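ok here's the first one, seq then C-alpha cells
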Amino acid sequence: MGFHIRNAWLPYPRAFLRELVLDVERYPDFIEGCHAIELLSRHETMVWARVTTSYGFSFVSKVVWSLFDISIDSPTFKGHWTFKDEGKGTHVTFAITLVHPSFAQKRFFQWMFPLASKKIFYSFTQRAHILYTEENQR
C-alpha cells in the first residue's frame, strides 16, 4: 500500500528528463493538485521548497540530485527518480513511498496513493513530450 513504482522508456535524452524533474518551480503548471511552490533555498545539488497543494495542506520538501538520480524527501513521502541511457532514449523509474502514515493517512492513501503516483508520472511524461517537441520545432 505505501510503495509504488512506475517506469517507462522515453525517446528523450537523460539530461533533458533530469532537468524537467528538477524544474520544481514549474510543477504547479502541470501537476494536478500542486497549487504553488516556494523555493526556500537552492544549493549546487539540493533544493528546499515549500509545496502547497490544492487539497489544503503544504509541506517542505528536499530535492537532492546527481547525474543519474533525484531523491525527494518530505514528511509525508519519499520519492526517487532514476534515469538510465537506453538506446536512443532513457529508461525512467519513479518510486514513491509513504512515510510513517497515521491511521487516517493510511485510510486516505489506500485508494489515493496508487492513483497519485500514476498521475505524477504521467504528468512528467506528457510534459516531456510537449517540451521536447516544441524545442525541436524551433
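and now the second one, same deal
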Amino acid sequence: MRAVSPVMIPAADRRGSPCNTGQRFRKDASLLYGDSMDLLSRFLELLQRFLPAVLVLFACLPAHEFAHAYVADKLGDPTPRRDGRLTLNPFAHLDPLGSLCLIFVGFGWAKPVVINPFNLDRKKGSMALVAIAGPVANLIMMLIFSLIARLLMLVMVSQWVLFAYSVCMGISYINLCLAVFNLIPVPPLDGSKILYHFLPPRISFKVQQNEYIISLVFMALLILGNTGVLAFGIGDLLGLIINPVWDGLCLLLGTSV
C-alpha cells in the first residue's frame, strides 16, 4: 500500500505571494469604484480565508492522487481502477480525518492509492514513476492556473475579476507547495519512493523496515512546526525553496508586485 500523502501550506504573507498580489489589484479597484464595493470586498476577503483548505481538498489533492492512480493503471496495475480511484471526483480521494486535520491543524492527507508493485509492467523504477506522478500533476496545475491569472490581468478591473485572479494565484501557489513538500525524501511522502529507487537494496530495505517510526517522527515535527511550538519548522525550511521559485514564476508571468 502506498503511504498517505500529507499536505502542508507554508505561510506566505510576503511580497510576491498570492495574498499581497491580490491586495495590489484590490487597491486598483478601489481607485476605480471608490467605497461602494466595500461590502462585497469584505465578503470576498472573508471567503478567501477559507478558500485554501477548500481548494486543497477539492482540487489539489484529487489531482495529485488521480495522477498516482493513472500512472499505476497505465503501468499495468488494475488495483486503482478496481478501487474507483481513476477519477477526479474529490470524494473518491478524501480521508475524513485527514480533511479535518487540514482545516484545524494546517496539514492533512488524502486516502492512500493502493498499488500492487508486482502487477506493474516495469518492475525496476515503476514505483518511482508512480510516486513522482503526483508532484508532477501539481506542477502542471500550478502552471495552468498561473497562466489563467496572467490572462485575467488583461481583463478590465472589477471586483469579481480581482477575486478570480486571487483564487487562481492561490491555487497555483498551493500546488507549488504540494509538489515541493511531497518530494521530500522522507516516509510517507512520495519523495521516499523515489529515493528507494536510487538507494542500494540493503539500505533501502533498512529504511523501509523503519518507515513507521520515521513517519511518526516526521509528522510530530510537522505538527510542532505548524502550531508554532518550534521556532523554525518544516514549513520555514520549505519556504527557502518555495519562495524563490514562486518569485521567479511571478516575475516570468509579470504578476509580481
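notes on #2: The chain has ten helices and two strands. Residues 112 and 124 are 22 Å apart (CA to CA).
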